[in-house]
Here is the input.
Amino acid sequence: MLPTCLITALPPEARPLISYFGMRALSHSHLRLYQGDHGYLLQCGVGKLNAAACTAAMLQVLPDIAAIINVGIAGSDQPIGTTCIAHGVQDQASARQWFPHLPAVRKLPEVNSVQIVSVDQPSTNYTNDRAFDMEASGIYSAATKVLDLSFIHSVKVISDNKESGITNVTGKLATDCVEAAIPTVEKLLQALPFNTLPETKDVDALCLSLTSQIHYTTTEQHTLNQLVHRYKALFNTMPDENDLLCLGNAKSIRKNLLSEIDNAKISY
Amino acid sequence: METIYIERGIASLPQTQSILSKYPNTRQISIDRYTDVFNAPAQNFRTQKQNPALILACKHGNRVLPTPPGYHIGGENNFYFSHMLNCIYDCRYCFLQGMYRSANYVVFVNYTDFFEDIKNQTQRSSRPSWFFSGYDCDSLALEPMTHFIDSCLDAFSTMPKAMLEIRTKSTQIRNLLARPAIENCVVAYSLSPAEIANTEEHKTPSLPKRIAALKSLQQHGWKIGLRFDPLLKSDNFEQLYTELFEQVFSELHAESIHSVSLGPFRLPKPFFKKMIRLYPDSKLLAADMNMRDNMLSYDEQTESKLLSFCESQLQSKISPSQYFPCVSVP
Ligand code: SF4
Here is the structure.
């Protein structure tokens, strides 16, 4: 599994996840970050601006993050404690919306999907098919700059509804709600389609090694990466690093790789 | 199909209801316009391909469009239409991967609007007009769900001046075999050597199955077409294509084949660049390519070698009137 970052708004929502996933605090001057075996947890504070700013900063600090799961509480006309996954996220103020690409139903069989509407002020206009929160749209707005919609999800647990309004939401209730969502978060982590991402580690490592020893412009680095990928696809093996280093400069390496690629035999 | 998005405007149409009834245990999500989901940024075609959603939508306008120059099988007026965007198969050379952000399937359920546009287009000329289905999808692959081609054939059977080509790799021909063949329809199969199909045409019916489907259709009286498209280079190209032609023509009645065409491998540059990003591990896309007329293709020499070899092989199997070179998508 590639590194994932869970994002919650407040400490009562973060606490059960930190404890369940055995996370420890990371020291960072602006971000409240925790690290565990599966990845990280970011506590972003209340509201979409905090959520967007912290998500963007976190993705800059941790560029290896491959997925984000927002976990928190929401209001809806569904029973308190119901866990839902967002099939749509809308920013109420701007009407902007996102549609996360959800895993198969059979991978999250007991979880209903719902439209999440991120509001600037708590809302009590409860309906069955929507859930109100205050962060999801901020997270999507920032995260979709870097990740794609198969890897950004929002899991919400209903904390308030027509019978039990927002004034009844306590820190303890928020903690209990998020605790109840942990099995869903676990299943979602397992269902993320990391296996569809191309394997680039060895190509990236070779390129990094070459570019740290030989002068490359940014454009040349990009070309090198493409050529090494093509070489690997055609020959099913990596080019020999020492052979390439012996060529001495970026231009000669490019010419050598191109000539090998041009002469590659393809047969079925 | 696990997730179905439904445009609110077509939710109550019988076609929509009929499709939904086939998928009772799905997430069904109401949306305003299919483009909100399908054209959204931050999507990954390769990732979505593992678990595509279905989007039921209405196609407003631009339903029937002129084909690009050279895309014809002898007719003067040529149009294409797509009742669906994307495909259940996963051919590594497919331009749809480069054209769309999303791998979700869009099905336009306002079938009758398509047929009305086809009828209007046909009436604009005294000559027959050709309508090509399967440009942005495989025409038959989802037929058990959509029944679009079945309705389409009902419509075409009342329009003798409108000629239909159903382009496919699918063996979903039950509906075609359950009805009498009509004169103004050609069912055209895209065919590649078995080894290439097995390696590059993921999830498609095997070559023998496609040939068996062609044979059944031919026996049932349907006009059939063969589309050797795209021609992919390989060191054992001559052997592969010789075997392919042997396999195909030993099973089919060559004289009654409606049309045979060849298609060189070509991709618009932006599509190609996107496809390489999605599949840096693809041998087919990693091969040496040239830029010509803003298209990525094999170098001219390789391309003409592939074409002339196949043409010379076909000469002994079919008559010149059956042969139409280079009917290619896109
Ligand atoms: S069958 Fe045609 S439309 Fe479908 S993936 Fe293959 S090339 Fe694309």
